[in-house]
Write a structure and sequence with these properties.
- The protein is α/β, with parallel strands linked by helices.
- The chain has 3 domains: 3-215, HUPs (Rossmann fold), CATH 3.40.50; 229-322, Tyrosyl-Transfer RNA Synthetase, CATH 1.10.240.10; 341-401, Roll (Structural Genomics Hypothetical 15.5 Kd Protein In mrcA-pckA Intergenic Region, Chain A).
- It contains 18 helices and 14 strands.
- Helix 3 (88-106) links the parallel strand 2 and strand 3.
- Helix 17 (347-353) crosses helix 18.
- 34% of the residues are buried.
Length: 402
């Protein structure tokens, strides 16, 4: 496949300043893509654009990856309210974390890492107004969607700092054009307006052409809502915010309507394999083969093959696909961080102390009705538990005896 064909197939075609998407196939360009350190981790929303960048790199495009130390000190404007300003120490910590996640996403692919604070720290206010501010009309800036959503009667308002964000991001593109020959910016759909600022600056200041390519928002076809959140909130790449097990489970629980789309976006699997999974899903959706491959591949990409394998085995043990006794120590530790735990010993007491039963009498009724299993085997008597043991009530309630 050509680059334009692969972008179309994977669902990475949205808005662009190019005349035709096939222009991408003519000659590999230098591009940049970046994120602000508004948190110390990226989410799978950021990851979608990162996976698009991987496709460009695969086809020979040269990548500059930016971590926005300068823009992070102001904050990317939101549609509803002003972001809180972050301290220098927090921004510095977040920058290092995000730079590390770039390495996870792109693996051994070649890229240059830059921080826009490195050039903005030397830019004077008057210089910025003359070189950047002079190139934009107020009507042009007021027409931006994020400004419209914040300015007006009954709306939250917008500070001058956030209003200037678009110009700052535009200067990034101009600087990278001058210093690295970057002529293409990749971005998420929500950054389209901000990204156009750089195209304008390069045209006016350098009499040169530059372009933007955006990826669409990923939509959950089952709900019609923006994809990327669970009941607990955003899905983060940092395992301290979203554990490896929960990360794996999120993908494993993908809806049938969207799972093939998610495979195209969030894994590097090639068309032949994804087409095979699409056929298998249509023939036997109950087997959930596509979801299992998605969960493993998406987790492997961010957390590595060993952790993905641990999560797969731990998950399989919960639902009887893998004997609990075969789990490795690290896989049991993974479950210990996710499930209620109780002391080994008496099963009735374990059911109550873990919260699986409200009382001893309810625990005994559950056991007698065959609703309780230990290590994958249903029990009908009040057995004694060794450690570790996996207790299961019904189909989806678990505890770990330790």
């Amino acid at each position: 496949m050509t680059l334009s064909e692969e972008l179309s197939w994977r669902g990475f075609v949205n808005q662009t300043t190019l005349n035709s998407i096939t222009d991408l196939d003519e000659k590999p360009l230098n591009f940049y893509w970046g994120c602000d350190p508004s948190a110390d981790s990226l989410t799978i929303g950021n990851l979608a654009a990162g996976m698009m960048a991987r496709v460009f790199m695969k086809h020979g495009y040269r990548a500059t990856l930016l971590v926005g130390g300068a823009t992070g000190m102001i904050g990317d404007p939101k549609d509803d309210e002003e972001r809180s300003l972050k301290g220098l120490d927090e921004v510095e910590h977040n920058k290092k974390s995000i730079a590390g996640q770039y390495s996870q996403i792109f693996g051994d692919m070649a890229f240059e890492l830059v921080d826009n604070y490195d050039w903005f720290k030397d830019v004077g206010y008057l210089q910025f107004l003359r070189e950047v501010g002079k190139q934009f009309s107020m009507s042009q800036l007021l027409d931006r969607e994020f400004v419209k959503s914040r300015v007006g009667e009954g709306k939250s308002g917008l500070s001058y700092a956030e209003f200037s964000y678009s110009l700052i991001q535009g200067y990034d593109f101009l600087h990278l054009f001058r210093t690295r020959g970057v002529t293409l910016q990749l971005c998420g759909a929500d950054q389209w307006g901000n990204s156009l600022s750089g195209v304008e600056l390069i045209r006016k200041n350098e009499s040169a052409e530059a372009h933007v390519w955006s990826t669409p928002l990923i939509i959950n076809k089952a709900t019609g809502k923006k994809f990327g959140k669970s009941e607990g909130g955003a899905i983060w790449l940092d395992e301290n915010k979203t554990s490896v097990f929960k990360y794996y489970q999120f993908w494993l629980n993908a809806d049938d309507k969207g799972v093939i789309d998610y495979l195209k976006v969030y894994t590097p699997l090639e068309k032949e394999e994804i087409d095979r999974l699409e056929t298998a899903t249509k023939k036997n959706p109950g087997a959930r083969e596509a979801q299992k491959v998605l969960a493993y591949e998406a987790t492997k990409l961010i957390h590595g093959a060993d952790r993905a394998e641990n999560a797969r085995n731990a998950s399989a043990a919960l639902f009887g696909d893998t004997p609990f006794e075969q789990l490795l120590k690290e896989e049991i530790e993974m479950l210990k961080g996710e499930l209620p735990t109780t002391a080994s010993g008496d099963l009735v007491n374990a059911l109550v102390t873990s919260g699986l039963a409200a009382s001893n009498s309810e625990a005994r009724r559950l056991i007698q009705s065959g609703a309780v299993s230990v290590n994958g085997t249903k029990v009908a008597d009040e057995v004694s538990l060794s450690a570790p043991s996996l207790i299961k009530k019904g189909k989806n309630s678990f505890a770990l005896a330790v």
